[in-house]
Amino acid sequence: MTEVMWHDLECGGYVEDFRLWRELAGNGPVLDLGCGTGRVALDLAQRGVPVVGLDVDEALLAELRSRAAGLPVETVRADARDFHLGRHFPVVLAPMQTVQLLGGPDGRAGFLSCAKAHLEPGGICAIAIADDIQTFDEIDAPLPLPDVHEEGGTVYFSQPVSIKDQGDRFEIEFVREVVDPNGGRSSGRNVIHLDRLDAEQLEAEAAGLFTVLESLTVPATDAYVGSTVVMLRA
To answer: Which of 13, 38, 188, 210 fits as disulfide partner to 64, beta carbons 3.0 to 4.6 Å?
Structure first.
């Protein structure tokens, strides 16, 4: 359950892209790649859009199934770089930088091939890429504000402490701290890596499989970087 809580704390509060996914989804069904606990899938399903959520993490999918009771949501445990569902969709979505978690060009090639194989003729694949990632270190001041969640008297903090440029990727480090109802504290560090990627590069990689459409944007906010959404037609 702690894994689910950290995922929701660090990813679940983002809503700025909902309007775009709602517009693209139409009446569905939609394939949501890297769905996690259902940030996007649940929003669409609550509006009557059938969604198949795909993720590699079974704990996150189990939580999505629990939250989606009575809603038109299916889940599939699979790697977004290599999956075979035996069905086709009018819309495939990859929100919130999923495509930058795939380990470079080879991973993206598998992802793009699988996405194409699961689209109806003329279907749309929409892929979000983080814009303008700015590096910083924990010696810098001030740091971004932490994400905070309280549950049952226990408070959870996730504090971004650095973003480091490693050439072909960015390393993002968080300090996670838990304060229990008695004031006891525990902490640890979590690191993720985002591939360095821009819309032009992804469009070039996809050009042999898709027709490249005009990209869309999700504006930045005080708390989140913006996104460019690469639009591809099968």
So the answer is: 38
Please answer whether residues 228 and 129 qualify as being in contact, where contact means their C-beta atoms are separated by less than 8 angstroms. Answer: yes
pLDDT tens digits for range 1-37: 578 888 888 887 888 899 999 999 999 999 999 999 9
Instruction: Look at the alpha carbons of 37, 53, 114, 28 in this order and tell me if their dihedral is positive or negative.
Output: negative
2-132+197-233: CATH architecture: 3-Layer(aba) Sandwich (3.40)
Torsion of CA 7, 8, 11, 13, to 10 degrees: -170
SS3 89: strand
pTM for the model stands at 0.92
What residues contact residue 157 under an 8 Å CB cut-off, 6+ apart?
A: 146, 147, 148, 175, 176, 177, 178, 179
**Digit-coded pLDDT (tens) for 59-104:** 999 999 999 999 999 999 999 999 999 999 999 999 989 999 999 9
CATH architecture of 147-194: Single Sheet (2.20)
* 218 Cα distance to chain centroid: 14
Element (H, E) at 102: none
